[in-house]
């Protein structure tokens, strides 16, 4: 196995993992945690925010978002593609990491994540994307899905 080629392949895609609590400032910016920031900066400085389920936002690196668009274009028929473009792509918002590692949550999408008084958000690594949650909503979601997790943990652990 050629390690040079393997490194080259991996450099083109990020794999996000972990859970991070981030403080949001009055302008809607937060400092991207360094493990995530390093991966984003290795690919590009830009990220794309999308409306996710359960009052969450999904964050993709710009190159990963381009891969998603290409995948959708090749897998969806014309009608599905139009729906995807009208209801998902039209609501996407771009943001760049500044020199200090801060990223701005686009205003119209920020309104979808009701911030508590402490102005914090939770970032959760999800393979090729990051999910952004209000901490209270995140805890409710985890609590609500805990039974489903318990039912599936055996299969998950066997795959490890």
UniProtKB/TrEMBL annotation:
Keyword Cell inner membrane: no
Main location: cytoplasm
Alphabetical list of PANTHER family matching this protein: TRANSCRIPTIONAL REGULATOR MRAZ
Record-linked Gene3D superfamilies: Transcriptional regulator MraZ domain
Annotated gene: mraZ
Keywords associated with the record: Cytoplasm, DNA-binding, Transcription, Transcription regulation
Compartments reported by the entry: Cytoplasm, Nucleoid
Protein name according to UniProt: Transcriptional regulator MraZ
A family per Pfam: MraZ
């Amino acid at each position: 196995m050629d390690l040079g080629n393997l490194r080259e392949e991996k450099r083109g895609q990020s794999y996000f993992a972990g859970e991070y609590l981030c403080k949001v400032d009055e302008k809607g910016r937060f400092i991207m945690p360094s493990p995530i920031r390093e991966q984003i900066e290795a690919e590009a400085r830009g990220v794309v925010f999308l409306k996710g389920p359960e009052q969450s936002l999904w964050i993709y690196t710009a190159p990963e978002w381009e891969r998603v668009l290409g995948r959708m274009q090749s897998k969806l028929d014309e009608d599905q593609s139009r729906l995807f473009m009208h209801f998902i792509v039209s609501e996407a918002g771009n943001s760049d990491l500044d020199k200090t590692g801060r990223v701005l949550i686009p205003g119209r999408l920020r309104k979808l994540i009701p911030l508590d008084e402490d102005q914090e958000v939770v970032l959760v690594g999800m393979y090729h994307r990051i999910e952004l949650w209000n901490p209270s909503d995140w805890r409710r979601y985890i609590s609500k899905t805990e039974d489903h997790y318990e039912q599936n943990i055996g299969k998950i652990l066997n795959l490890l």
